[in-house]
Specification:
Strand content: 5-15%
Number of strands: 11
Number of helices: 15
Helix content: 40-55%
Radius of gyration: 27 Å
């Protein structure tokens, strides 16, 4: 076991230990302040604490923490954390019922589970910050070696190196020629030739100057099969992670997903988790519940919004516009009217200093208040809370001719908010690359959908309503 692997294991066990600390803080807080525990004798309290900790031990076994892993997303961490909390509460209830112990009710246990989840979410945030600082200081580092000089390795470099929390240090690359078009800020050293590397890994005693990391990324032509096999065998013998990266000239330029057609392996261009009926039901249920909540919260403010709009800009309260929806079908999207009535509404995007906007309308756009009526579209089924933002029909026609994969974003329902909007691609698209970036993120969302990703995007959207988004106008 390598040094950084042992450190990772230590971090994992420290996180598990912290989970037990958090649980017991929650337990003691409930025992101290919840009225349901007032008449309990000390013996019953001790048994209750013991069983609750036993339940967490079982839950940790099946749901170990992910936060110490290098390539893990926030949604993965939250999903694992939710399962940890749910299983802990469920096991505690079941064990007490099986032992016929009349302790806290299931309602109290579930409430404690919810509080435990929220406290754990804060703890994970703090732990992630600590791990990031620890790795930024050069500790718990995982070393990487590249083999080849293809430009695809530059993409791998940025994926591994740009996020300090991943804790990667790249030695350099072995290749017969220098890597081309390396940016000045990329410190990627050529360590030697490919033959020097192959000779070094096959010697009984590895040369002192041969730099082999914990992971090796190989990007050579598929015709060099023997070279790939030799490196792969070396990695197997020395417990080094092996990755093969197709060179750019052999890449098809499309994302392929592996599927099984009976016992035949085939590949498809796009994977859509929402094609699964269960996932579709989960998302639809979530949309309905959250839309009803949002509309109930909005209802008391509706008269105020209507009065201000009428004072500042005569015309209807709501703005209706045809947008492109799922499967390319059009629908009428609703918004609070944030502009004066004008003839260019279905043709021109809003700009930063657009003269069509009135003061309160400008505020609504910056704070996302104008989007609230779209929850009616969600209830109707034309939209989802999270998904690719629907575009005007004119823009759909324009960009579908300019961007190859543009129409792929219509495989799912459009959203009130989306992954592109919370990752810097909100607002006016002055140049083609901006729309290409938006489409790329929309497709990524479709392929990686989970209910946890939707919750994360909603949270990022709420934050943008408090912290002003410079692209919101």
């Amino acid at each position: 076991m390598t040094g950084n692997t042992r450190t990772n294991e230590l971090i994992k066990w420290l996180i598990i230990l912290a989970d037990f600390v958090v649980l017991n803080i929650v337990l003691f807080a409930f025992i101290e302040w919840h009225p349901g525990f007032e008449r309990w004798i000390p013996y019953r309290i001790r048994i209750f604490i013991l069983l609750s900790n036993l339940a967490l031990l079982i839950s940790e076994y099946y749901n170990p923490p992910l936060i110490h892993e290098r390539m893990v997303s926030v949604s993965d961490i939250l999903q694992r954390l939710f399962r940890l909390s749910l299983v802990q509460a469920g096991v505690a209830i079941v064990v007490m019922k099986l032992l016929d112990i009349d302790f806290a009710s299931g309602t109290i246990q579930l409430l404690m589970g919810l509080v435990f989840f929220l406290c754990e979410a804060v703890a994970r945030y703090v732990e992630r910050k600590i791990i990031k600082s620890y790795r930024q200081a050069g500790r718990n580092t995982r070393y990487v070696t590249f083999v080849g000089s293809d430009s695809e390795l530059l993409n791998i470099y940025h994926r591994l190196y740009d996020e300090a929390a991943k804790g990667y240090l790249i030695y350099g690359y072995y290749a017969d020629e220098e890597m081309k078009n390396v940016p000045e800020d990329v410190k990627l050293e050529r360590l030697g030739t490919l033959q020097e590397f192959l000779k070094g890994i096959e010697q009984a005693e590895r040369p002192a100057d041969l730099k082999v990391g914990d992971e090796i990324y190989v990007s050579v032509s598929r015709t060099e099969r023997e070279t790939v096999r030799r490196i792969s065998r070396f990695c197997d013998r020395h417990v080094v992670r092996f990755y093969f990266v197709p060179v750019s000239v052999e890449s098809l330029g499309i994302d392929l997903k592996r599927e099984m057609l009976d016992d035949i392996e085939v590949y498809t261009t796009y994977e859509n988790p929402l094609a699964n009926p269960v996932n579709k039901l989960i998302k639809r249920t979530f949309d309905i519940v959250m839309s009803v909540v949002a509309l109930l919260v909005t209802l008391p403010f509706l008269p105020i919004i209507w009065i201000i709009i009428k004072i500042q800009s005569p015309g209807p309260l709501l703005f209706k516009q045809e947008r492109t929806g799922v499967d390319g079908k059009s629908f009428n999207m609703l918004k609070f009217r944030s502009m004066h009535v004008n003839a260019d509404a279905d043709r021109l995007q809003a700009t930063k200093d657009d003269p069509r906007k009135y003061p309160f309308g400008n505020f609504m756009r910056k704070a996302n208040v104008d989007e609230l009526p779209q929850f009616l579209n969600v209830l109707k089924g034309d939209m989802s809370i999270v998904g690719p933002r629907p575009h005007m029909l004119a823009h759909t026609q324009q960009y579908s001719e300019l961007i190859d994969k543009y129409m792929v974003r219509h495989f799912v329902k459009p959203g009130v908010t989306g992954w592109a909007q919370v990752t810097g691609f909100r607002g006016e698209t002055k140049e083609l690359w901006q729309m290409e970036g938006r489409v790329k993120r929309d497709i990524w969302y479709i392929e990686h959908w989970s209910i946890w990703l939707d919750i994360r995007i909603m949270w990022m959207t709420v934050k943008s309503m408090v912290v002003h988004d410079k692209n919101a106008y």
